[in-house]
Design a protein that fits this description.
Elements (H helix, E strand, L loop, with lengths): L7 E9 L2 E6 L7 E4 L2 E4 L6 E6 L2 E14 L18 E14 L2 E3 L11 E4 L2 H8 L7 E7 L5 E5 H5 L3 E4 L6 H14 L3 H7 E7 L25 E7 L9 E3 L1 H4 L2 H7 L8 H16 L5 H15 L7 H12 L12 E4 L2 E4 L5 E2 L9 H6 L2 H14 L4 H17 L6 H21 E3 L10 E8 L2 H22 L8 E6 L15 H17 L5 E7 L7 H5 L3 E4 L5 H10 L5 H6 L7 E6 L6 E5 L14 H4 L18
Parallel strand pairs: 12-22, 12-23, 13-20, 13-21, 14-20, 15-19, 21-22
Antiparallel strand pairs: 1-2, 1-9, 2-7, 3-4, 5-6, 5-9, 6-7, 7-8, 10-11, 10-25, 16-17, 17-18, 23-24, 24-25
Helix pairs in contact: 6-7, 7-12, 8-11, 9-12, 12-13, 14-15
Length: 641
């Protein structure tokens, strides 16, 4: 085979670190060259050129260019004849990216250009080496390079076994990129084994990935996953009948830190009550044979035998709480007649007294005659009937705990009243959207999409934190020593909603706990086989700690100065020339950089036509298209044949 000569463009005239100046030959300034049947990019900004140094090919990109006048130096405007065709020369500046040696591209500072080295066009074969990955490395296709139209492949192992960041302004194509990334992964030959070895969780704030559509030829839906292996949880606090409840283990939901944040409990007065009450609840319920009726009636008996030692309102508080859950007024006919006489309680019109002293002093006949035994039985029956609804069990338990803790002045009831207003509304929302289940993680499928577009604010901020902690802890428990046999992948769209380090509206407790969970995940998750993918239009709003621990990035168009500065400060693999191109990227165009890439790559992401996220721009003129009204019947002309 004939060896194709190189197309010479110029010669190195100056070297300064990784920057080299090239004096261009004449007839070498076209944007493209047809060279032995190949269309090659000419020396334009961002294009690759090859610096030849013996057998070593130093690969560089065009950083900037200028022209200099070689002959004329007249400064007078009147006689200025500079920059004529025969007197100018083009000078370009190249930035060294790496070298091709023995058929492989590597980033190294071992070789530097030297004055006199010739610069040639980078061939298609050389581009394949630059953009390619190891021939034995499993890959997916993501799109084509913008300048050279070369297929861009991503290493499955280096890319997906890492934390990924996808950033870009609204409308830049980041939703399509996120979907395309995982769609191509599920198209790979490893898909069948993923069903047994991995789980993927998508937190979808805008409902873009919750479509139930599918591609006709394959019957696969969003992300290319069949319905049997894909579950969509449309968390809807407004219409509970359409809501598929999210599965959560009790130890994560009934956690004092989580519920203190959800209930917005005050640290000094309300959090201690919650911690103590939840500890009691978790201990009693987990014990198994818990007689709730006897437990709460114990508080009533103690109030009745405490005389004036108990708060005056405590007896009525207990009765009011019991009536709230036992809609049976005749049960309370005797208790309603109890009054206090000389510091002791008595059923009015009878000789049934509850004298101060031990609760054991109350005889069984007194308990029966006053209706307390029957009330105890009914409360026990109610609590047991809610065994499949532990959130409602918790609500009842907390209300009786409030009576118990305030009856003797240990806790000021005025401090707890505002908390219980929030508890009632929050637990009502939780019961609509969450199902408490042991070993819940085993019931999730390969792809799990949690849509929060119809959830209220308190549920929207709680669920990502709750779910992330649960699946991360469960994944850690699976790892024995250094052997990772299964993986979890958490994908958060619009991640700035929950990872905003300056988000103060919900209080410092919420902010600190939320960030501590995700900072631990992104710092430690990789070694446990837990990987995070973040997508956001405002990277500047995301915690710098989280952003700096991201390994690979796909960056779409960003124009905000704060966002650009954040990327510049946290991404060591992004060079200056690539950074300067970010604001001018077109729709669907992105820079891919990070540990999985040898050099930053400008790529046009392929767009799926059949199944894709619900993020397309609205065509207003189609929406407003006039509808042709049918002609009135009386205006029609009958044509006779």
């Amino acid at each position: 085979m004939m060896k194709i000569p190189k197309r010479k463009l110029g010669v190195i005239t100056a070297v300064d670190g990784d920057l080299s100046q090239v004096g261009m030959y004449s007839m070498s300034n076209d944007a493209e060259f047809l060279w032995y049947g190949e269309i090659l990019n000419g020396p334009k900004i961002g294009a690759y050129l090859t610096i030849n140094q013996n057998e070593i090919k130093i690969i560089a990109t065009v950083a900037n260019e200028k022209v200099v006048d070689q002959q004329n130096s007249i400064k007078s405007i009147e006689f200025d004849n500079r920059y004529s065709k025969s007197s100018i020369n083009r000078i370009i500046t190249l930035k060294t990216k790496g070298v091709i040696e023995n058929g492989e591209f590597q980033v190294t500072s071992q070789y530097v250009p030297m004055i006199g080295n010739e610069v040639t066009l980078t061939t298609l074969q050389e581009l394949e080496i630059i953009y390619g990955v190891d021939i034995n490395e499993p890959t997916i296709n993501i799109g084509k390079s913008i300048l050279e139209n070369q297929p861009i492949k991503l290493s499955i192992n280096k890319f997906f076994a890492s934390h990924i960041g996808i950033f870009g302004n609204t409308g830049s194509g980041k939703s399509n990129t996120l979907h395309k990334l995982y769609l191509e992964l599920f198209k790979s030959k490893y898909y069948e084994q993923m069903k047994n070895k991995s789980q993927f969780f998508v937190i979808d704030f805008n409902g873009e990935y919750s479509s139930s559509g599918f591609e006709e030829s394959t019957r696969k839906g969003i992300f290319g996953v069949e319905r049997d292996y894909r579950e969509i949880f449309d968390i809807n606090t407004r219409n509970v009948t359409q809501c598929r409840k999210l599965l959560v283990e009790s130890k994560y939901l009934f956690d004092p830190d989580i519920l203190s944040i959800l209930f917005d409990a005050r640290p000094a007065t309300q959090v201690p009550f919650l911690r103590s009450a939840l500890k009691e609840f978790n201990n009693k319920v987990s014990a198994g044979s818990f007689d709730f009726g006897a437990y709460v009636v114990g508080t009533l008996k103690k109030i009745l035998t405490s005389g004036s030692a108990a708060n005056q309102d405590s007896f009525q508080d207990w009765i009011g709480t019991a009536k709230k859950y036992l809609n049976n007024n005749p049960l309370f006919s005797k208790l309603n007649q109890i009054k206090q006489f000389n510091g002791n309680y008595k059923i009015e019109g009878t000789q049934i007294w509850f004298n101060s002293g031990s609760t054991e002093a109350i005889s069984q006949s007194t308990l029966n005659d006053s209706g307390i035994t029957k009330i105890s039985d009914e409360l026990k029956k109610l609590f047991n009937s809610l065994s499949n609804e532990p959130i409602l069990q918790l609500e009842i338990f907390l209300h009786f705990q409030k009576v118990h803790r305030t009856a003797w002045g240990k806790v000021n009831r005025e401090h707890l009243n505002p908390l219980f207003n929030r508890i009632n509304t929050s637990l009502d929302s939780l019961s609509k959207v969450i199902e408490v289940k042991n070993r819940a993680i085993e019931d999730y499928k390969l792809m799990n999409i949690i849509s929060l577009v119809h959830a209220n604010q308190e549920i929207t901020r709680l669920i990502p934190m709750l779910l992330s902690k649960m699946i991360y802890d469960q994944q850690k428990s699976l790892v024995s020593g250094k052997v990772v046999s299964k993986t979890k992948h958490l994908i958060i769209d619009e991640a700035h909603n929950i990872l905003n380090s300056s988000y103060k509206n919900n209080g410092d407790d919420w902010q600190d706990y939320r960030l501590s969970i995700f900072e631990e995940i992104i710092k430690e998750g990789r070694k446990f086989g837990f990987y995070l993918t973040l997508s956001s239009q405002r990277p500047a709003d995301i915690s710098p700690t989280i952003l700096s621990q991201t390994h690979n990035y796909l960056i779409h168009r960003l124009v905000n100065e704060k966002d650009l500065r954040m990327l510049e400060n946290t991404m060591p693999t992004l060079d200056k020339s690539s950074y300067q191109m970010i604001p001018s990227l077109g729709k669907g165009e992105a820079i891919i950089t990070g540990n999985a890439m040898q050099v930053p790559v400008f790529v046009k992401i392929d767009k799926e036509e059949s199944v894709r996220p619900a993020s397309d721009d609205i065509i207003l003129t189609n929406l407003w298209e006039p509808v042709e009204e049918p002609e009135p019947e009386e205006n029609r002309v009958l044509v006779l044949k």
